[in-house]
Specification:
Residues 343-416 form the Pyrimidine nucleoside phosphorylase C-terminal domain. Keywords: Glycosyltransferase, Transferase. By secondary structure, the chain is an alpha/beta fold. It has 16 helices and twelve strands. The chain has helices spanning 3-11, 18-30, 35-48, 52-63, 91-101, 120-125, 136-146, 159-171, 177-190, 211-227, 249-260, 269-287, 291-303, 306-317, 349-359, 403-412, and strands at residues 79-83, 106-110, 148-152, 195-202, 231-238, 246-247, 332-337, 342-347, 375-378, 385-386, 391-397, 413-415. The strands form four sheets. Strands 6-9-11-7 form a four-stranded antiparallel sheet, with helices on both faces. Strands 1-4-5 form a three-stranded parallel sheet, sandwiched between helices.
Amino acid sequence: MNMAQLFEKKKQGKELSQAEIQYFVEGYTTGSIPDYQASSLLMAIRLLGMTDDETFYLTKAMIESGDVIDLTSIEGFKIDKHSTGGVGDKVTLIVTPIIAALGIPVAKFSGKGLGITGGTIDKLESIRGLKTELSSQEFIDNVNKHKIAVAGQTGNLVPADKKLYALRDVTGTVDSIPLIAASIMSKKIASGADGIVLDVKCGSGAFMKTEQEAQVLADTMTAIGEKLGRKVVAHISDMDNPLGKMIGNKLEVVEAYALLKGHMDETHEDLLEECTIISSLMYQVAAGVNEPEATAAVKRVLEDGSAAAKFEEFIVAQGGDLDDIVQKDTMNKVAVKAPAEGTIATVNALLIGEASVSLGAGRLTKESELDYDAGIQLLAKKGDHVCKGEAIAYLYSNREIDEEAMDKVQKAFTIA
């Protein structure tokens, strides 16, 4: 078996066997298959696709390329969730303490952000003192004691995905549903949870631009999870508009904490609605209850303050300083104003995300340094009426704010 045979077979639209896919993943992970051969096969997959069986074999081979985390010493049904990424998506910060407050253990491994999609680990690391690098024992002890832990991915968790994703990122092969599905599900399965809720975003600020594409990705990932013995549920949500009012690492933590404490004047109903749906699905999967019962339970822990208390407990348990969850007031701050009077028809998530990166809230490369305080506050959302000259957003940064970022944010608002 060699890579030339695999190229030829894939070029002819034939299905690769499990042994052939295993050969490719093992060879590329260990370095015996060079980048140029791997990128050729990835491009063939991007252009010709993969069958369900091929995608499953790829996922399985990627899982087997490294460690699989053993969470059996954590009591109860372990639930996890994953978002395919979006602008202002701080859902993990809100739903994990909600579920933990309901007595369900949440053992979550998250990543850092790249481009316009923020990473949960970056948001948590914006809190002074908070540790996201936990030993296996620390992680397990925290979940058993507090019902919640969120940590960065371990060094040898799915190493095949780390290498393949880095190659896909520079070879134009990121936007392939089989490759996206295998990448996400290999990490989720290797992370050891019993059940997974997938939040698949679609729209201008997401990988999947249409609902049809998002549904195919959701179905593919669900099928993989079920074949590997996990309970998996997928939900498709809008990412044409940013989620909530805040975009940026510390800003999103501040908004998440405000929502949990019931301060709805500091957040937006769209974020509460999304978090209620995802929390309800997580509770349904873990506890085996129906949707009305799960939603009622979620609303109860939000209203009685136990979800907010669990968030505080979780932050302190990982070394974070609760007093640091405040918006810094010494940054550069610029208002973006409405160019006309009317009703906001949409706020383009892609443009808002790009502007936030230029302010320092996101990475252009893995080596980029973040400004944890930087970001954007949306003062107007879809459906709001604005007057000409009224402030519709604030831009924050510890660096100089340029005209390009301001123009991009203003253009993001479509006023009807």
